[in-house]
Amino acid sequence: MRTASSSIVVTRQIPEPGLELLRAAGEVWISADDRALSAEELRVAIAGADAVVTMLHDRVDTAFLEAAGPQLRCVANVAVGYDNIDVDAATRHGVVVTNTPGVLTDATADLAMALILAVTRRLGEGERLLRGRDPWSWNMFFMLGTSLAGKTLGIVGPGQIGRATAERAHAFGMDTMFAGRADGEAGLKRLLQTADVVSLHCPLTPATRHLINAERLAQMRPSAYLVNTARGPIVDEPALVHALQDGAIAGAALDVFEHEPEVHPGLLELENVVLAPHLGSATIETRTAMATLAAGNVVAVLSGDPPLTPITIRRQANC
Ligand code: GLV
Ligand code: GLV
């Protein structure tokens, strides 16, 4: 039953095409602040909402669900990852949770490939050298990196983004191998011991929190690189800093951080680390598609139709 009086809360500005869809479905309230709302501000904003469009920094837990009230029908996360949402609690409250899979696969795989290239060819270091106005000159041994052709990319998390990253790696002449939950500890260990580049593409769950810890970093080759475009807490960041300082691995390229938006100070000091501020899905096209998919989910649920991309029935899909 879609009524003009449905109340839809959007916790932070999203691209206009998404808002247009929402405005046609109800009364839309958008936070005027261009920042993550505090838990308290969120609870005030969502009171009485029929649907809430959330960002990956909004925590959706029992307190959130209770603050919204029993009329809440849908939480539409504008992200593929939904570690910020207690899906079981939402289900108990009769709330449909949706995410935005598919539309950000290519953008995120592109960024993973960009980070693989940047860290193996020392692009960050080279750029810092030039911007530092240090004298330099070409020579046969200057700032040598590592070639990708013939090397092995190990993909942890064989979901859509992991597979799309593998396709790109094949175009660069790389071999690929995968490890997912079904491959168990032995599969992950084999990947870590074999891969020249390890790229993380699994969701953050209790099972993947600190999946890459000191022990697993020690299983990697000293010449190997770690790339993370998934979620920061999958990596034990202090352990990673130690591994990089000790030369246990050759380098790392990170788009996500354990305590985002903070970055471990040790990472900032290392030349063999490439850092990006969570840009995986950050293209105009992709963010617009994410906003319209999230809005489409809200419209469907408020109309009494099945959501386009519900989490509840697909939650075991990746990794
Ligand atoms: C971004 O990190 C996402 O999960 O979509
Ligand atoms: C490198 O700059 C080359 O011309 O080989």
CATH class of the largest domain reads: Alpha Beta
| Amino- and carboxy-terminal Cα gap | 36 Å
Estimate the helix proportion, in percent: 25-40%
Silhouette:
elongated
Low-pLDDT stretches are: 313-319
Number of domains: 2
Question: How much strand content do the residues show?
Answer: 5-15%
Order of helices and strands: EHEHEHEHEHHEHEHEHEHEHEH
Helix/strand structural class: alpha/beta
Hetero groups in this structure are: glyoxylic acid
Biggest beta sheet attributes: 6 strands, parallel
Q: What would CATH call the homologous superfamily of the largest domain?
A: NAD(P)-binding Rossmann-like Domain
Q: What CATH architecture label of the largest domain applies?
A: 3-Layer(aba) Sandwich
- Compute the CA-based radius of gyration: 21 Å
By CATH, the topology of the largest domain is Rossmann fold
pLDDT averaged residue by residue: 96
Total strand segments: 11
> How large is the count of helical segments?
12
* Strand ordering within the main sheet: 7-6-8-9-10-11
Summarize the structure.
The chain is of the alpha/beta class. Helices cover 36% and strands 14% of the residues. Helix 11 (265-268) links the parallel strand 10 (251-254) and strand 11.
Describe the structure.
- With 319 residues, this protein is α/β, with parallel strands linked by helices.
- The chain has 2 domains: 7-102 and 284-317, Rossmann fold (3-Layer(aba) Sandwich), CATH 3.40.50; 105-275, NAD(P)-binding Rossmann-like Domain (Rossmann fold).
- Helix content is 36%, strand content 14%.
- The chain is built from 12 helices and 11 strands.
- The strands form 2 sheets. The chain has a 6-stranded parallel sheet with strand order 7-6-8-9-10-11, with helices on both faces. A 5-stranded parallel sheet has the order 2-1-3-4-5.
- Strand 4 (74-77), helix 4 (87-92) and strand 5 (96-98) form a beta-alpha-beta unit.
- Helix 5 (105-120) packs across helix 7.
- The longest helix has 19 residues, at 284-302.
- Residues 313-319 have low confidence and may be disordered.
- One glyoxylic acid (GLV) is lined by residues 56, 79-81, 104, 280-281.
